[in-house]
Amino acid sequence: MKNRLFRTLFLLWIPCILSAQTGTLVHIPVREYTAGETLTFQCLFSGNISHVDGVVVFIRPAGNRAYHQYPMKYNGIEWTVTIPGTALSGGDMEYFILAELSHGGVISTPDDNPFDYPLTIRDMETGKASVPEHTTSPEEGGIPAEYIILAPEPGGTIESGDFVVAVSLFNMPDIDLSSIRLELNDTDYSSYLEKSPDIITLTLPPGTLEPGMYTATLYAQNHYGTRFSPETWTFTLISAQESMQRIDRSLSGQVGTEFRWEDVDGEPNNLLRFTGRITGSIQGITLGLSGLWVSNESRRYQPRNSFNAYARTSYTDLELGTFYPELSRLTLYGNRVNGAMIRLKLNFLNLTYLRGELLREVLNRAELDSSSHTWTISSFTYARDIQVIQPEIRFGSFLNWKMTLMHARDDTASLDPALNIEDYNPETDSYIFQGNSPVDNLVFDNSITLSLDNQRLVWSHNVALSMTNRNIRGGVHDSITIGDEIISISDKLPDFMSPDRLSRFFIINENTNLPIPAEVSEDLTEFRLQPNKIMDYPSLAYWTTLRLNYYNNLVTWTFKHIAPEFSSLAYPGLQTDIHLSEIGDRIRLFRNRLIVTLRYSSQYDNLLGQQKEYVTNTNSISAAMSVMPGQELPTVSMSFRYYLRENDLNTAADTLSELLTSAATDQRIRNENLYQMFTLTQPLKTGGIPTDLTINYIRTLRKDKIPNRPPGYISPDYSLNLWSASALTRWSSTLIQTLSWSLMDNKISRTSDFTYQTFVGKIEKSLWENKLFGAFEIKWTHASGDVAFDQYQVSPELRIKIFENDLFLNLHINKLNQSGTTGTSTRFYTKYTYQF
Fold this sequence. Notes:
Blueprint: H1 2-20, E1 25-26, E2 32-33, E3 39-45, E4 52-61, E5 68-71, E6 73-74, E7 79-83, E8 93-101, E9 106-109, E10 119-123, E11 148-151, E12 157-159, E13 165-168, E14 181-184, E15 187-188, E16 193-195, E17 199-202, E18 212-219, E19 231-238, H2 240-245, E20 251-264, E21 267-268, E22 271-282, E23 285-294, E24 306-312, E25 316-323, E26 337-346, E27 349-359, E28 362-369, E29 374-381, E30 383-395, E31 399-411, H3 417-420, E32 430-434, E33 440-452, E34 457-469, E35 479-482, E36 485-488, H4 499-502, E37 518-520, E38 527-529, E39 540-550, E40 553-562, E41 578-589, E42 594-605, E43 616-627, E44 635-647, H5 656-661, E45 670-686, E46 689-705, E47 718-732, E48 735-748, E49 752-767, E50 772-785, E51 789-802, E52 805-818, E53 821-835
Parallel strand pairs: 2-10, 12-19, 29-32
Antiparallel strand pairs: 1-3, 3-7, 4-5, 4-8, 6-7, 8-9, 8-10, 11-13, 13-17, 14-15, 14-18, 16-17, 18-19, 20-21, 20-22, 20-53, 22-23, 23-24, 24-25, 25-26, 26-27, 27-30, 28-29, 30-31, 31-33, 33-34, 34-39, 35-36, 37-38, 39-40, 40-41, 41-42, 42-43, 43-44, 44-45, 45-46, 46-47, 47-48, 48-49, 49-50, ...
């Protein structure tokens, strides 16, 4: 991104520079070199040497987009630089020399468009160019992207056996995963990508990439078909033998601090944050250290501070501190863990073991009844421990099998009143808990992934069975729950499987549901297991996905069955008691100039046919189309989504009071939602000045059907219409202006109507190759109707980048006038980072 911006500035300024320069670069081109040997460049400046701020050699493997930069040194006569042989990977190289002048201009050799037409150096050993096959054409432009490059680090060196590309999508929630494409040296390797909403990774079969310098380029679009700006970075791949022969003394890292001062009507809300990250490698071992400290850390909440350390080799990974593992989508999948994880990597056999803490103990409220000397403890969280073991077998790149065993248990001793309540007297006081009960959870998951035809066909399937004790506070008992009955198991298990002996692994009592279907005798003394009744397992979950990428169609199918008793304490957000089937297709036509997305989803609950007040059946259909005919032509995006939920509800309310006090959670028989969106972007030029004009319309409707609505009941039906228009004008490569307007009309039932209008103006200016950047934004919101107010916001910001220092300053002032009352809030935010 930085190189492309510099290139744009250079091309815009070069006519003026050539006409105003007071000297030229004198350079005898280098024509040949030998791979592995050092390469020296020399040049002279024909003018006054005091006019030169610096001279840089830009060099790259032939066919790459990105250049490596090597500053030249002045020895009193000429400018020279020697490039080490380890940086020259073999094959033809391309280069040019660029000099920065003190008055702000630049000169180069060659002097005509050097970025696109550099000088060529032939490899004497190969005698031919090592230009990789070009499988795609570059895609320029697009909206700014906020990828976080995790590996390989830009400009870093990595051993071929440890090669993996990892990019975080944390800051890009609207990205379309199916549109992501990754190229290495202009060769598309997207079929090897593994994608999730949080991260994408690329691993290749051994021997796919030869050692050398590589340029990675990432392309993607959002859900509306709008392209993100391509992300490009370079790295060097070395062989295992070369890695063992040299000690990589490179060390990189970043330290930073953030400060927020905020005042909301006289109430302070300040925050101070320190971050740090150091990475390096030595003799094939990659080491890393990172940490986060915030001023609002408190024992009343889950931890905000974090610390992480890791060591990675070709055969072992070790991680300590705070991390977010993704081991299995039905057990532990991205939840925060404080602990340790080790992974053995033996090619076809891998083994992962994790042990740590999911939650720490929190006690927010304890009240004493002095008459009975009883403490009532509420608003609390038990410490929750977790252990995971996961063997994995790989058969090449096409078949992968994992077995995951996860055990999570709340620590009942973590909330001991004698340790957590200062005034508690264990000799005279007693206590009771009011709130969630401590639980014990065991999950066994099997997953298999099959990849065929260069990953054009990928099938993944998970089957998991869980066992949960909903309250372990009473300890171990010789009974278990089957359906609605509690059955004694004291004489039905061998001695080595007694509840007491099993308590180390899992606590069994009457709050434990048997995970296997069983038939109970009438006198409740016997039960017979029925393992063949697969659909009756109360805690069974299976999840299947199929992806087909053929003939410009990306077809995805998802089938999910999560039984009502299934539970994973490491994945608390997993929806249970659902049966979901979803199919979608992304169709790419006319060389990706027309993209059509179709999706249908059906879901229902009450899988075991239990006695419930109502069950739901949900269907949704969505379609989207994006047309991108080419540069200077309009881009059009349209989307449609319809959602229908039907409740099998047999209750009716005669009065408003009965409606509000009914035991039914949702009184709606039918709920419909409709969403429509249209966006048009037209590039314009007025007097040679480019402007992107964007017009957007969004319509949302919600309609509920409630039986026998009592008099005075307000309908929850809702409609929204949003119109917006914006114009982004590039007055120059360093000056951008944005003007926008939006109008949102809201109607709730037929009794409430209010409208928002927002006007925004923003101007951005950068200087000295983005070393200094400033912006100023002003925003006015006017609301009328049942909700009326005026809001004024002003936000200036400044960013300074000098060498490896990056300083960002932002001030935000907000003033709100509503019903004759004025409120003001002020926020100042600054962030400083230093990279080394």
